[in-house]
Amino acid sequence: MYLFKSGDLWSGSEGGVIRIWPWESMEKSLSLTSEERHMATLLVERSCIDLQSQLSVNGFSNILTSDVKYLLADNSRAKVWSAGYLSFALWDARTRELLRVFNTDGQIENRVDSSSFQGFSIEYASNSKKEKMQGSFGFFQRSCNAIMGAADAVRRFAATGAFGDDNRRTEALVLTIDGMIWTGCTSGLLVQWDGNGNRIQEFQYHPFAVQCLCSFGPRVWVGYASGTVQILDLGGNKLGGWVAHSGPVIEITVGAGYVFTLANHGGIRGWNITSPGPLDSILGSELSGKEFLYTRMENVKMLSGTWNVGQGKASHDSLISWLGSRKDVGIVVVGLQEVEMGAGVLALSAAKETVGLEGSTVGQWWLDMIGKTLDEGSTFERVGSRQLAGLLISVWVRNSLRAHVGDVDAAAVPCGFGRAIGNKGAVGLRLRVYDRIFCFVNCHFAAHLEAVNQRNADFDHVYRTMKFCRSTNVFNAAAVGSAAAVQMLRGTNVTGEQPAEGMPELSEADLVIFLGDFNYRLDGIAYDEARDIISQRCFDRLRERDQLLREMEAGNVFQGMREAVITFPPTYKFERHKAGLAGYDSAEKKRIPAWCDRVLYRDSRSTLLSGCSLACPVVSSIARYEACMDVIDSDHKPVRCIFNVDIARADDSIRRQELGEILGSNEKIRYMHEELHKIPETIVSSNNIILQNQDTSILRITNKYGKNDAFFEIICERLSFIMGDGQASDHHPRGSFGFPRWLQVTPAAGIIRPNHIAEVSVHHNEFQTKEFVDGVPQDCWCEHNRDTEIILVVKVRGSYTTEARNHRVCVRSLPHG
C-alpha cells in the first residue's frame, strides 16, 4: 500500500515496516540529464528511509511489528496515520518522528502476548445403574449444570481470547473536512478521533462489518458487508441509508455529483449526492404520480412446512407426502423441531454458538434428504439454512426464480434455561425476493398445558431480539451491472436497515411467516371428549378451546398476524408408526390432542381489503393449509401451508427515465437543484504574501453566501526559484503534502459558516532538510536560502459540488538579509 500526496512517498507492509522515499530524491532524479538518467532508479532506491529501523522510542519496538493495513494523510496537520487491525501509529510528516501509538480503544499501546487457549472439555456422566435410579429432578439439574458450564467456559474464552479481538478490527478509515478521522470496525462500530489520536465518540447503526468509508463536504458514507450504505453528518447523526448491493460494498467514491459504490461482485451504482435532502419529498411526490408507468407485478407460490420430528428420521414416502405438492411452487420453507436433543447435544450446540459455529451431522442428513425430495440441483437450489440444537430451518428456491432472490441472512434465539440454551427457541432466515424482504421463523416454545404465559413470553422474546446476520451458505442474486441510479430513500419496510433503537428487525419485513411447534394446547376439555369431537370432525368446537386463538384474540401473542382456518385434526400427540386417528396417544398420560404445529403470517397489508401496490408491496393469500395425517414417523404430524404471494416492484430503468424527465421539466425542482449545487461566493483577503525570518501572515477567507457552508482546501500548485536575472524557474509541487518544508499553512482545510470568516496562518519556518543515502542521514541545508515563490490555491466548494472555485495566492520567501 502507498500514500503519495504531491510530496514524500510512504508505504506500509507486513511486520510494521514503513518506508519513505523523500520528494527531494525523486525531484533530483527527474532533473538528471539524459546521460545521467540511468542513475535515477538507484538514486531513489538509496534515498529510502526505513522508519522502523530509525526508531529509538522505548516501548514502541514490539508494538510496531503489527502489519500496516492502512495509511492516511492528514493534510491540515502534516501528519500521517498508519493503522493495523488493532492499533494505530501517528507520525509527523515533516520530521518523520513517531508521535504516538495507541490501540482501537484509544489507550496507549502496551501489548502483552496473550496466553494460548488450552481448550475445555465436556465430561458426560456415565449411565450407570445407580445414576439411572436417581430422580428425574437430579438428572435435570445435572444436565442444566453441564450445559450451562460448557457454554459459560466457551463464553469466557470468547470474551478474553482471540475471538474477542475480531469485532474490534479496523476495516476502514477516512479524514473528514473538519479534521476528524473516522474508523470503521468489524462489529459495525464507527469511531471518531481528533487529529492527535484522541478517541472522541463512537456510533453503532448497523450490526455488519464496515468495509469502506468516504467523506465529502458535510457527510460521511459508510459501506457495509451486508451491502447496505448509510449516510452520516460530521457529528455522527445518521441521515439515511439503503441496501445498495446484494454483496459487500468494498469502495465508495464521489464524482460528477454522484456517490459511486462498488460491490465485491463488480457491480457499480451511482447515487445522487444531495440525497437525503429537500429534493427527496418533491421528487417522491412527482414520481408517485407516475407509479403506473414503472410498477411491475410478480406472483410467487410458496410452500411452508413445519414438523416436530421427535429425534427420529423420516422415510422417503413421508417426505413426498409432506413436500410433494409443489407444482408451480417457487419457494419451499422447511422448519424442523427436535432434530436432536439431549444434554450433550445442547451443551455442544451452546459451545458452537458462542464461537460462531452451528449445524450437525443429523441436521445435514435432514437437509440432504429434503434436497433429494425436492430434486435439488436440477429443479431447486438451497439458498440458506440455520440450526440451533434441535431447531432447523432451510429455504429452497426454484432455479427459474433464483435470479430474483438474494441477501440471505440467518438468526437464532435460544429460549431455554434462562434464554441461553436451544432446547426451546427459534431459528430464522431472511431473504430478498424481487427486492422485498421475506422473513421465515421456525419456533419451538415451552411445553405443557399450563405454560400459556411462558409460550407468550417465548414469542415476545423471539420477536424482539431476533437479529439477522449473513448466513454461511449465502446465495446472492446475479451481480448487478453498472448503473447510474438516483436513489429514493425507501420506506421502513424495504430499507434493509438496522431498525431504530427498540424496533425489532422482524417488524421491518414485508412478509413474515412463523411456523413451528408453538405447543399451544386445548383448554377445558377431557381426553375422551376431544377424541369424540375429532372423530366427528367438528373442529369448530375444538377451535373454541384453542389456547393460541384465544391469546391472539386477546392481543397477548402474535400481534398483527393471521392464520388460515384450521380444517385438519389436531397434530399432537400420536403413537409412532400407528396410522389413522386411532393413533392418538393412549398411554398412561393420555395427552389431550392439540394443534401444536402451526403456520402464521403477516404481509404488508394494514387491512384485509388493501390491494398490492408499491405502497403495499406484498399481499398474500393461502391456497391450502393442511396436515399430513398419513405420516407416522413422529408423535407429531407435519403441517404445510401453501401461499400465493403478490409482489409489487419498481422497474428501475423506467423509473430512472421518468425521474430524468421530472428533473428536466419541473422548474421548481430545477431551481432547487441549481441552488444545492451552487458554490458559495468567497473573498480571499490577499493574493500576494511576502515572508522572511519566520514571519507569519494571516490569510482570511470570507463566505459571503448567507445560506450554505463553504468548504475550503489549500494546496501548493507551483514552486519557483527566482534566478539572478529575475526570471522564475518552475518546478512541480514538492514537500510533504505539497507544501515546501519551510512553509506551514494552518489549517489547510476547513468549513466556513455562512457570513463567517476563516483565518489561515501562513508561517515561514526555519527548517533543515536532511538527505538520506541508504537510510542514513547525510548533509543538511535550509530550503529557503534562495528567493523562492510558490502559488497556493484556495479551492472552495459547496456542500454538494464536486467542482471548485479557485483563488490563487502568491507566497514569496525572501532569503536572509
Annotate the secondary structure layout:
Blueprint: E1 2-4, E2 9-12, E3 18-21, H1 23-30, H2 40-46, E4 49-50, H3 51-54, E5 70-74, E6 79-83, E7 87-92, E8 98-103, H4 129-133, H5 136-160, H6 162-166, E9 170-175, E10 181-185, E11 189-193, E12 199-204, E13 210-216, E14 219-224, E15 228-233, E16 238-243, E17 249-255, E18 258-263, E19 268-272, H7 279-288, H8 291-294, E20 295-308, H9 316-323, E21 331-337, H10 343-354, H11 361-373, E22 380-388, E23 391-398, E24 405-415, H12 416-419, E25 421-433, E26 436-444, H13 452-465, E27 469-470, E28 483-484, E29 511-517, H14 527-535, H15 539-543, H16 547-553, E30 597-602, E31 618-627, E32 639-650, H17 652-665, H18 667-676, E33 682-684, E34 688-691, E35 696-703, E36 710-722, E37 728-731, E38 743-746, E39 749-752, E40 757-764, E41 768-773, E42 776-782, E43 788-797, E44 805-813
Cofactor: Mg(2+)
GO molecular function: metal ion binding; phosphatidylinositol-4,5-bisphosphate 5-phosphatase activity
Organism: Carya illinoinensis
